[in-house]
Design brief:
Elements: H1 7-23, H2 37-54, H3 72-85, H4 93-106, H5 109-121, E1 126-129, E2 145-149, E3 152-159, E4 170-176, E5 187-193, E6 199-204, E7 213-224, E8 228-229, H6 235-248, H7 255-272, H8 278-306, H9 314-340, E9 354-357, E10 361-364, H10 373-381, H11 391-401
Parallel strand pairs: 1-4
Antiparallel strand pairs: 2-3, 3-7, 4-5, 5-8, 6-7, 9-10
Helix pairs in contact: 1-3, 4-5, 4-6, 7-8, 7-9, 8-9, 9-10, 9-11
Length: 415
């Protein structure tokens, strides 16, 4: 790392801290402060409006599109100060972090004027339509088609693992618009309305009874012809930009959720006496070391972006970081279950209350399957080596782009 926060970025900390101190509930920064369920609901109900009024939603966007025009380092400072205070940012990941910046980079002026204000104000919600049953890690094999019909695209196909699909107003969806072109060349990136007869959303139930994901079926769904982002048949390049935003955000704060969760595991081990077992203590120490590695890797990633250093290999850093934290999380959640011991085989959540999932915020306990916070994190961790790029694919990226190894041979069928 060779990274120094410039004076103007450090000076901006006081601006961010001052706003947080003025707008968070009284007593927020005092040790042991906690809101009641009623107070929390009231706080969250008005918090997004305060964030919007303060200009903190998408603050790095140019001022002409509603942002503050912050530099990269100023935006990092904002993320750090909100994380340090434990203050929530608006939870619109798909709009704020993925499709919004993609439209900023690739969209037409008309698309920017149409969609960016609505993303900022929160008047439209988004979901991502990339993966398909036969096109997950091999995304270029997608089969969903869009055929032009006058001033509209007619879309047919299926997407899967679509988070927020059942509440989204729009989907940014990859479709094959030229079946004769090579796989990567015939794809377009469309902004398609969800509320129409040709779109069917079916929730996918998970092991704990929740349904964060959905599968989406398009049957002659309609999308305006002008809603192609980045140009016709250029969707692969646009999608790679979106995935870059997904993997590259919160470089210096991403480790904090794992730190918070590990502290919860340690507190549980202290409470039930597991902390006295040498093996448990050793595994806790190893987990703490890995969280610190994540912190350092975040700084390395930020260094590579800010200094535009090609030797770091930004794509490779993203791949190695994804492998590291997703496999760490499965390892530490297995440790958490061992800390819970035999009791961990029981459902330990309280069906009548919300629980705080360490590092993630609060979640309603499912009365039909009342897992507690650590159990829920354990279940969720199983998926993390798959979504956002499987560990196997990430290792291929490191092998090919960093180590210079030959590309993995394609499977061939035998007659």
């Amino acid at each position: 790392m060779d990274l120094t926060y410039p004076p103007e970025a450090e000076a901006y900390r006081s601006v961010v801290r001052g706003w947080l101190e003025e707008n968070l509930p009284a007593g927020w920064f005092e040790p042991g402060f906690e809101l009641s369920d009623e107070q929390r609901a009231e706080f969250l109900a008005g918090w997004t409006e305060k964030l919007y009024g303060g200009g903190w939603i998408c603050a790095s966007w140019p001022s002409e599109y509603g942002g503050k025009g912050l530099s990269t380092m100023e935006a990092v400072v904002v993320a750090e100060e909100f994380a340090r205070a434990g203050a929530p940012m608006r939870a619109d990941f798909f709009g704020d972090t993925l499709v919004g910046p993609t439209i900023l980079q690739w969209g037409t002026e008309e698309q920017k004027k149409e969609f960016l204000p609505k993303i900022l104000s929160g008047t439209i919600a988004w979901c991502q339509g990339f993966s398909e049953p036969n096109a997950g890690s091999d995304l270029a094999a997608l089969a969903t088609k869009a055929v032009r019909d006058g001033d509209e695209w007619v879309i047919n196909g299926q997407k899967i693992w679509t988070t927020q699909g059942f509440v989204a107003d729009y989907v940014f969806v990859l479709c094959r618009t030229d079946s004769e072109a090579p796989l990567h060349k015939g794809i377009s990136y469309l902004l398609c309305p969800m509320d129409q007869p040709g779109v069917e959303v079916r929730p996918i139930k998970q092991i704990d009874g929740s349904a964060e994901f959905a599968e989406v079926f398009f049957t002659d769904a309609r999308c305006p012809v002008d809603n192609v982002v980045g140009g016709l048949n250029n969707g692969w390049a646009v999608a790679m930009t979106t995935l870059g935003f997904e993997r590259g955000t919160s470089a210096t704060t991403g480790y904090r959720r794992f730190e918070t969760e590990l502290n919860h595991v340690i507190a549980t081990a202290r409470a039930n006496g597991k902390i006295d077992e040498p093996e448990i203590r050793q595994r806790l120490a190893k987990a703490w070391s890995k969280v610190q590695i994540m912190r350092i890797n975040g700084l390395r990633s930020l260094t590579a972006v800010v200094q535009e250093r090609k030797d770091f290999g930004v794509a490779a850093l993203g791949a190695t970081n994804k492998i590291f934290w997703s496999e760490y999380h499965q390892e530490v959640m297995k440790l958490a279950m061992d800390v819970l011991g035999v009791k961990g085989q029981l459902l330990l959540g309280d069906p009548g209350e919300d629980e705080s999932v360490p590092g993630y915020g609060r979640r309603p306990v499912n009365p039909a399957y009342p897992a507690n916070a650590l159990q829920s994190s354990f279940f969720f961790s199983r998926s993390e080596t798959i979504w956002g790029g499987t560990s196997q694919i990430q290792r291929n990226i490191v092998g090919e782009r960093v180590l210079g190894l030959p590309k993995e041979p394609k499977a061939t069928s035998r007659a």
